[in-house]
Amino acid sequence: MDEHIQGWINLYKPKNISSFLAVKKIKKKFNINKIGHAGTLDPQAEGILPIALGKTTKLIPFVSSGLKKYIFTIKWGIQTDTDDIEGQVINVSKNFPKQNEIKNCIKDFIGINEQIPPKASAVKINGERAYLLLRKNKKFTLKSKKVFLKNIKLIKNSSKHHSTFEIECGKGYYVRSLARDLACSLGTFGHISYLNRTKVGLFSDNLSILLDDLLKIRQTDFEFNCLNSSMSMLDDILAYEIEDERDFTDLSLGKSIKIDKTKLIKPPLDLDKNKIIFLSKNGNVISFGKLNGNLFKPNKILI
């Protein structure tokens, strides 16, 4: 495949495959040299996994920091060591929360809160991943961190054992930790029995492509049918389209260029000098950096 190809794939990852393996399959099928993903999904989780190709991989942090939506089911009365269906049972309760109790309790989790990651997570403890320590049956503790939950709603109680929710949350939020902590607040135990990520920033499930469908596409049709431009999937950004070929050449050499601020796309009311500016050409990001007056100083070059 053309080594200059770049853009995003709005991938829907199925259950029973890791994010790493899903990316590996795409890389092999389409012979892509540089590829990455934004926001890992557990093997037992399904849903949106944004895939970046080529120099678009440098934009992954801007997607990963966006809001995400999940639909998930908690099974009440059982706690596992991984806080999901794959783990070993470590606690059991016969207390099953009622619908009104759940609705009253979930309000307390909205906003910025301290959250302890699951023990089966990629958090590092003295240089080693927590999930590896868990597999070795080693004892360890994880520090809490501040996370953001924008909203949460109870969708249904399918039985006294199961409740399904929808949330919108910020970067680094663990749904498995929410299940554990919510159950604890309700005087019982709980774990995730189903998890679906339905949105990551501008990536949503209604416009996604299934992994199996993607892998069936011919290589000649790949770029036309599956790729979104690198600019199109960046949410709420300050952008500027490069038209002058001399500016394009200067940028390719890492030089600063002057821009006409009146031509900024979606300019804010207050143009903070620390605001990141994205420069594009034909729909793809070619650089991002900051403005000093009308002088653009690139942080990264994607040409």
Class per helix and strand makeup: alpha+beta
DSSP summary, beta strand count: 19
Share of helix among residues?
10-25%
Number of helices: 8
Overall residue-averaged pLDDT value: 91
> What fraction strand?
35-45%
What is the H level of CATH, i.e. the homologous superfamily of the largest domain?
Answer: Pseudouridine synthase
Q: Within the CATH hierarchy, at the fold level, what is the topology of the largest domain?
A: Pseudouridine synthase
Task: Just give the CATH class of the largest domain.
Answer: Alpha Beta
Instruction: Give, in order, the helices and strands.
Output: EHEEHEEEHEEEHEEHEEEHHEHEEEE
- Unreliable residue runs: none
Largest sheet: 10 strands, mixed
- The Cα radius of gyration reads 22 Å
Distance from N terminus to C terminus (CA atoms, Å) equals 17 Å
Q: Using the 3D structure, state the CATH architecture of the largest domain.
A: 2-Layer Sandwich
Global morphology: elongated
* Total number of distinct structural domains: 3
